Amino acid sequence: MQNEERVFEAFLRQYREIFRVMINAAEQITGQYSVSFEQYLLLKQIHEQRNITLSELADATHTTRSAAARKLRALLLDGFVEQEAKMDDRRVKYLRLTTKGVTVEHDIRQAFLQSARTWEEIPANMKPANINDFFTQYQQNIAIWDRTRPKFRRPVLRAKRKALGGE
Description:
The chain is mainly alpha-helical. It has helices spanning 2-31, 37-48, 54-60, 65-77, 99-117, 128-148, 155-163, and strands at residues 81-85, 93-97. The longest helix is centred in the first third of the chain and has 30 residues, at 2-31. It is globular and about 60 Å long.
């Protein structure tokens, strides 16, 4: 039990540190363009998938429709994204980047690529291909862990479902 506790504490410490470093690095890059990292992910997806709808964008970025709409609203107001109604169904709106949005998405992408080039300096004895292999393996291991870990339901949701007669 004591060993499990040490592993758990090490996991939490590593998770917090890795997450803090990665998100701070990402936000530092995107912040130069007055865009959050989450907003950049929307810009990137809109750039890669022409004529995407809000629902498709939410699905592609693994977020809720309301969260995507909230982030998108700022991108629309800042002139990075524009909407165009579908011809045969005016309720459906396609999203695309404006010229300003294309420029910002490109500049942020280049900044991320430049930042990624410095990764090869982290472990002095690893080649760039080995670093990529390491991240790929790490991502695969995390995906396996995520699929097989015990899933916990939030108590508030459980109480709401129970009150509504769902459990």
